[in-house]
Automatic annotation (TrEMBL):
Name of the protein: Magnesium transporter MgtE
Annotated source species: Eubacterium segne
PANTHER family attached to this UniProt entry: MAGNESIUM TRANSPORTER MGTE
Principal location listed in the UniProt entry: membrane
InterPro entries for this protein: CBS_dom, CBS_dom_sf, Mg_transptr_MgtE_intracell_dom, MgtE_N_sf, MgtE_transporter, SLC41_membr_dom, SLC41_membr_dom_sf
Transmembrane segment boundaries: 312-332, 339-369, 389-411, 420-448, 468-487
Domain CBS: 166-228, 230-286
Protein's cellular compartments: Cell membrane; Membrane
Presence of keyword Transport: yes
Amino acid sequence: MEENKEFEEKKPQDTEESGTENNIETQEYEIPEKADYEAEIIDIIRGNEPAYVKKEKLNDYHENDIASVLEDLDVNERRRLYALLGLDRVSEIFAYLDDPEEFIEELDNETAADILEAMEPDDAVDILDELEEEKSEELLQLMDKEAQKDIDLIQSYDEDEIGSKMTTNYVSLSLDLTIKQAMKRLVEQAADNDNISTLYVKKEDGTFYGAIDLKDLIVAREYVELESLVITSYPFVYDHETVDDCIEELKDYSEDSIPVLDKDNHILGVITSQDLVEVVDEEMGEDYAKLAGLAAEEELEEPLSQSLKKRVPWLIILLMLGMIVSTVISMFEKVIVGLPIIVTFQSVILGMSGNVGTQSLAVTIRVLMDEELEFKQMLGFVFKEMRVGFFNGLIVGSISFIFTGVFIWLVRGQQFMDAFAISGCIGVALALAMLISSFVGAIIPIILDKIGFDPAVASGPLISTVNDLVAAVTYYGLAWVFLINILHL
């Protein structure tokens, strides 16, 4: 009994402590403020400390953070910084610059060539492509033969081919090596290659055989055969494959790097995870531009003529389609003159139709990018989009029927039956337009994909304009049949 009493006496205290813990858990978590690395780096660079102290401090900062402060420094400060950090570190910093050409231009050709030579070949190509052709050729001629060969290889591919995105920085091993010999080869190549987490193995004829995880090689016993460590089913892509065709495959494997082979299965380079992130970002930017009705992405400092070149063609096409929409509406002039109140709600029908079509378009493009659909699956997807459009139209149309009926009856002073006859026409037109727009938004990109066109060219503005036409015909056609000819309003 005493023990029970003691337990009961302690119970409230325990409960109170538990409550305190719960209060602590439910308190809002405050994210600590991050250090301002850019300000710290500038303070170090402009400080009065000896050069070796500055260098030691700057070694603690990521190259991307140092790259972000270069534009805040003057030319002399940048040159002192380059001399302080050394060629290899500067080349890594330049790889993170968004507009490296302006910093390359302020260097003498020898220094600029040395920096590009020390960079990953694919990063060097990105910079050379931004420079004037004459300047680019001058710098290329100053590089060593091996760097020139790597850059020429990458530049030989079209921009949409995966070979243009690869780097020649990788470690390769021969299949006939022992574990000890393989480790020696790894050490020899690691000095010049950053991508060492995956090692690529070649057969005697030089063709790609498979890959070895660095960890497996490190822990392997000397008596183990190298071949037993090789993953022979390791994924790869061919150099002339388009980015669009293989990007999803690359994303699915989630490897640090994936080899790029030529048609004879010789390894030419690798696509790293960093390259993949950049490729995905570029593809998303291009798709976003297409959805906006642009031929390509626009840059911040792009000339006016280039921006016009990208926008005007689509705008002319959309203008022609808009004229067709206006012509169709003019065909219903008698409906508009006889029942002008319906014009008030035209924007609602056209707007909702365009919104639904754009949603279906976005979903369809996403599905087409992620999966290879069979004909049966495509039909199922289209019907699914139509079902979504039907039920969305049913809900929105019902709400519209009630609210527009009340509005026309009370605010516009129409008779009760007439008001709800008009709102009924609006609700039905809205439901039908949303159903048809869902179908149009799904079927157009599928058709374009099947006939070999990029489905993203069925852009938002194009789908919206087509759906305006659908909505106008549906709305005014129903009004003509239902309100004018049947009800004689």
